[in-house]
Amino acid sequence: MKYSHPPEVRPYLISKSLVPENQETPIHFYYGDIVTEKLFYRRNHFSYPNFASSFYHLPIEGLVHTPKVFSLQEIYSLPSKVIKVVLECSGDKRKLFKPKVFGEQWGKGAISQGIWKGVTLRTLLQYTGLHDSAKEIVFEGYDNGIRPDSNQLFNFSRSLPIEKAIDPETIIAYEYNNQPIPFKHGFPLRLIVPGWYAMASVKWIKKILVIGKEFKGPFQAVDYVYYPNKENDSGKFPVTTINVNSTIQYPLNMQLLHTGVYEINGIAWSGNGRIANVEISIDEGKSWNPCHLTTSSEKHSWVRWNYQWEALKRGEYTILSKAMDSNGNIQPLEPIWNRKGYGYNAIDRIKVKVE
Amino acid sequence: MKYSHPPEVRPYLISKSLVPENQETPIHFYYGDIVTEKLFYRRNHFSYPNFASSFYHLPIEGLVHTPKVFSLQEIYSLPSKVIKVVLECSGDKRKLFKPKVFGEQWGKGAISQGIWKGVTLRTLLQYTGLHDSAKEIVFEGYDNGIRPDSNQLFNFSRSLPIEKAIDPETIIAYEYNNQPIPFKHGFPLRLIVPGWYAMASVKWIKKILVIGKEFKGPFQAVDYVYYPNKENDSGKFPVTTINVNSTIQYPLNMQLLHTGVYEINGIAWSGNGRIANVEISIDEGKSWNPCHLTTSSEKHSWVRWNYQWEALKRGEYTILSKAMDSNGNIQPLEPIWNRKGYGYNAIDRIKVKVE
C-alpha cells in the first residue's frame, strides 16, 4: 500500500440538489480568479438536455430582414471577443434571507468567474438585420421539462431588450477558459450577458427569435421577478443587473482564532460598473476601515480585497464587509426581502471568537 | 467534442476547513448504507501525519505483564471481527445550536457508516496481560501538531476505561469495506469504538499504553468535554456515547413541493442499543406518526426509515423526526446546549412549502 505524502486535500462543489443539478462553488476555499470547470457552480432548471451537437446549427429568426442559420464553423470564424465575467445566480445567498425563503438554499457560492470567448450578438445581427418593430430578443435553450406550476413542457427561454442584446459585451460564447464550453455550462453555445444575473446567460442555445413585444415566458414573467410582498404580487419588477456585493472569504463564520494578526480577505463585485472601494468593520458597523484592493477593478469581474487585522484582544467579534461600485451603489445593511429570494446583497457579516 | 449523455451528476464532500482537512458527508444526497471512501466524512485535528508505514509496528506498553510489539502480519493473522459501525463526530450538527457555538460549523453530515474489520483489543491484550492497577488504555495517533491553547507539540491521544477497551466489539481495525483502511481514515490501524462518538476511534495508531490513572491529555480533558455553562466549567462531563438521533434526508429543508404523495425518509441511530422506533410529525409536534423502518435495526448501525405523506393541501409545513432507542432514550425537543457544541441530538426539523 503506497500513499503520497502529504495526501491531496481539495474542496468540492456543494450539493443543493442533484435532479436537476444545482451545486455551488466552495467560495470560502477558492482563492483563484479564474474558476475551473470542476469548481464552477452548476445551476439547472431541468435535467441536462440531450441533443445532437454534431448537427448543431444556430437559427436567428423572427423580426429580422434575413433569417439565417449559423453553423458553428461560421461562428468560430467571425471576429471574436474575450471577456472576464462574474456569473452570479440571482438566488446566491438566498439562505441568508430572514424570514427564510423557500427554494434552493444557496449559500454564498452561487457565483464564479472565468474567461468567455465568443462572437458579439451585435455581429450576428449584422447578418440578419432587425425590423423597426423589433423589441426583444428571445434565447431558447435546449433544456426543457415540466414546470411545477403547469403540465406543459417548457424550454428554458429568456429575452433581452434590444439595447442590452446589442451591447458590445453581450456575446454568444463558445469557449470558457480557452477550452470549448464544458457541456454542463452550455456547450456548444451559451449567451453571456455581463452585468446581469446569470439566468440571462442562456445555456445550450437552440434558437434566437426577435419579437415585437414583451416576452412572457415563465422564466421571465413568473420566476426571476422580485416580489416584495409575501402575500401578493404588487410591486413586482424583473431581476436584471447584479447588485453590488461582497463576500468575506477568510476568516470563516464562527471560526475560533487565537490572538494575532490576520488578513481578512474576500471578493467584491457589481453589475453596475467597477468596484470603487470595500470597507471592513470589526465593531458591528460603528467604524469602517478601507480595504486594500489586490486585483485591479475591472467592469464585470470581481476584485479581491484584504485588510490586516490585529486581533490582540480576546473576545467575540462581528466582521462586516461593505462594497461600493463606481456608480455609487453601496451594499445595504439589510437585504431587500422578496418572496422568491433574489438579489441578496446586504453587507456581508461573520462572527469570530478570539481566544 | 464528445460528451456522455446524460452527464454524470454526483454529490461531493462538503468542505468545512482544508488545513486540517474537515469535510462532511453530503448526507442528504447519500442513500447507501455503506459509505464509500470518497464520501466518508473527514475530520482531522492536525495535518495528515507522515510516517513510514512499511516499518509499521504496534507497541502495547505500560501496566502490562508482557509488553509486546505487534507486526501488521501478526495482527492480520489473529482471529478477526467484522462490524458495521456508525461513526459520528461529536460536533455533528453543531451549526444547529442556538445560541450559535464557535468552532467547525458541521451540518448534519459529520456521520458515516461502513464495515470495519480488525482484531479485538481484548485479543491483543491476552498477549500482554494487564496489571491489577490498570485503569485506562491510552491510544496515541501519529497525527500531531501545536494546539492553539499551548506552544507544545501534542499527538492526538485518547483513552478508554478498561471495561470499554475490552468490550468484544472494540477493535483495532485494518480494513474498511474489505479494503485496507484509506490513509485519510487511519491506515494502517485505527481503533474503532462502536457506540462512542468518533473522537474515540483514534486513527494511525502509534502506541497503546496501559495506565493506572485517569488520562488527562488535552483531547480528553479540555476538548470533548460537555461544558453546559457559557462562562465557566462547572457541571462539565466527558463526551462518550452517541446520543439517540435522526436526520430527515428527504425532503430538503426549505424545499418547494407540489401537492402530491411523498416519501419522507431518513436515518436514525444511537450509541445505546438498537433503534426501537422513529416517529414523524407534520404539524409542529401536535401529532406523531410511526415510520416504517426499511433496514433491520442492528446495534451500532443506522436504520433507514420512511413515511408516506399525502401533501394534498397547499401551505407551509414543519416536519419533525424523533427516534427512540431500545434503552428508551428519545430525542429531546431542544438540544442540550454546551459551550463547545457536542452531541446535538434534538428532534430533527425541516420546513417545506407545498404549492
- State the secondary-structure class of chain A: mainly beta
Biggest sheet of chain A: strands, sense, closure? 5 strands, mixed
Tell me, what's the shape of chain A? globular
Segments of chain A where pLDDT lies below 50 for 5+ residues? none
Strand order of the largest sheet of chain A: 5-4-13-8-9
Task: Please give a structural write-up.
The structure is a homodimer of 355-residue chains. Chain A is mostly beta strands. Chain A is 6% helix and 38% strand. Chain A folds into two domains: 14-223, Oxidoreductase, molybdopterin-binding domain (Sulfite Oxidase, Chain A, domain 2, Alpha-Beta Complex), CATH 3.90.420; 245-354, Immunoglobulin-like (Sandwich). The first copy, chain A, is built from four helices and 24 strands. A five-stranded mixed beta sheet of chain A has the order 5-4-13-8-9. In chain A, strands 6, 7, 10, 11 and 12 form a five-stranded antiparallel beta sheet that branches. Chain A has a five-stranded mixed beta sheet with strand order 17-24-23-19-20, with no helix packed on it. The model of chain A has no long low-confidence stretch (mean pLDDT 96). Chains A and B meet through strand 1 and strand 24 of A and strand 1 and strand 24 of B.
